[in-house]
Amino acid sequence: MSTAKGDPERAVDGFIAVADLLDEPRLARLYTHVLQGGDVTIDGIVADLDIPRTTAYSDAASLVDLGILTRDETQKTHTYTALPVVLTTILDEDEYTITPTLIDAIGRIPRDQDLSFLVEKHGIGKLAAALTYAIPYTEGKMSERVAARELDLQPAFGIAVLHALREVVLDMQDHDPYFDRIRNARDNPPGEDG
Amino acid sequence: MTELETTHAENSVWIVDTGLFIACGRQHNDKYTALARFAQRHDRTFVIPHRVYDELGGAPDRSTPGETPINTAIDAGWVRVADPLDYANPTVATVMDDVRGYIARASNRDEDTIEKADTALAGVAGQLIDDDEAAYIYLVTTDIHAGEGTVAAVEAAGYDGRIEVVDGFELIDEITS
C-alpha cells in the first residue's frame, strides 16, 4: 500500500479493507488479535483464537492482501503485524470515524449473544452508534437508561449491549491509536434521524 | 464484601439494579449461581424496584436479560420486588427529583429527557429509609450515575451516612474469584 498523501488508490483500497472487516467477524477478530499482540505467529494465532491452522493461514493471507497486516518473512518463523485502520465516512450531514475499536466489536459478534442479537435486528450501524455511548458509559459519564433510550433499545437489552461494549472499550482504549477520534455521544448526541 | 457485612449488618438492605443481573448472566451464567449463593450465605434478600422487574421481564427472549431467571430467584426467596413507591411521601418525591437532575447533568442532557422511571432506585432507597425499614442501604448497580446520584440525593434528604454504592462489576468479580 502506498503511503503517498492524497493517494486515491490507497484511500479506496483502505475503504475496501475496512468494509471487509466490517462484513466478516472472523477476519475482524484475527485483525484485532494481531493488533493487540504485536508480532504474532501463526502458532500464536491458532493457540489464542482456537481456530484451525488452515483458517489462520488463509485469513492472515487475506488480511495481508488487503494491506492491513504485514508479514515479516526475514525470520524462519514468519510474524504478522497489524496496521491500525482509521476511516471517516461522511454521508450528507452524518459522519462517523471507524477505528480498530469498532473492528474489535465486530469480531466479537459470533461469540456474544447480545451483540449478535443487536446486529441481527438492527445492523452494524446500530452497533457503531452504541459504541459512541459505551465510551462515555465506561468512563462513568453516561447513564445506562439515557443511552438505551436514545439508542431506541429496550432498557435491559440496551444495558446488556453497553456491558458488552464496555469490555471492548476497556480492551481497546490502550491498543487503538485512534480511540480519541471515535464519536462520543455524551458531547455529540446523534440527530433524530441519525 | 465481608467487611461491608460486618460494618452495617443490622437491618441493612441491599437494593439491586437491572445491570447486576445482566452482568451476572452475560457470557457465562454461572455467575448467576454465585450471586444466589452470596445472597443465601449472608441471609440476604435483594430488593429490586418494580421498574427493574419490568425491564428484565420485557427484554427480548434471546438476549442476556431475557434469559435472566428472575422469577426463579423471587420464588427461591433471595430476590423480592419492592413495595409500590409512595409519591405522596415528600422524601421519596424529593429524592427522585434530585436524582433526575443529577443524571441529566452527569450525562450532559436536559432534565426533561430523563424519565421519572429512571429514578426508581432512588425512590425505593428513600422510601425504605424514611419508613424505617432499613437502617442502612447497599445500592448495587452497574450505572455509576444512578448510584452516585442516589447516594447524593438520599444524603441531601437528611440521611447522611446511611447509604453506599456497591459497584456491580466489582461485586461479581469478588464473588466469582
Account of the 3D structure:
The complex is a heterodimer of chains A (194) and B (177). Chain A has 194 residues and is mostly helical. Chain A has two domains: 8-82, Winged helix-like DNA-binding domain superfamily/Winged helix DNA-binding domain (Arc Repressor Mutant, subunit A, Orthogonal Bundle), CATH 1.10.10.10; 87-181, no CATH class. Chain A has helices spanning 8-23, 25-37, 42-49, 53-65, 100-108, 113-122, 124-138, 144-150, 155-172; strands at 69-72, 79-82, 87-91, 94-98. By secondary structure, chain B is of the alpha/beta class. Chain B has one domain (2-176): Rossmann fold (3-Layer(aba) Sandwich). Chain B is 51% helix and 12% strand. Chain B has helices at 2-7, 18-25, 30-41, 50-57, 70-76, 90-106, 120-130, 144-156, 168-176; strands spanning 12-16, 46-48, 79-81, 136-141, 163-167. Chain B has a five-stranded parallel β-sheet. In chain B, α6 crosses α8 (144-156). Chain B is globular and about 40 Å long. Classes of the chains: A mainly alpha (194), B alpha/beta (177). Chain A binds chain B through residues 112-114, 117, 121, 136, 140-146, 149, 154-157, 159-160, 163-164, 186-187, 189, and chain B through 18-19, 22-23, 26-27, 55-56, 58-60, 62-66, 103, 106-109, 113-115, 118, 142-146.
> What spatial order of strands do you see in the largest sheet of chain B?
3-2-1-4-5
Question: Low-confidence parts of chain A lasting 5 or more residues at pLDDT below 50?
Answer: none
Percent of residues in helices of chain B comes to 40-55%
Under the CATH scheme, which class of chain B? Alpha Beta
Give a quick account of the main beta sheet of chain A: strands, pairing sense, barrel closure.
2 strands, antiparallel
Total strand count of chain B, please?
5
* Strand tally of chain A: 4
The Rg value of chain B, from CA coordinates, equals: 15 Å
Structural class of chain A: mainly alpha
- Number of contiguous helices of chain A: 9
Structural class of chain B: alpha/beta
Number of domains of chain A: 2
| CATH level-3 fold name of chain B | Rossmann fold
Q: Identify the quaternary structure here.
A: heterodimer
Number of domains of chain B: 1
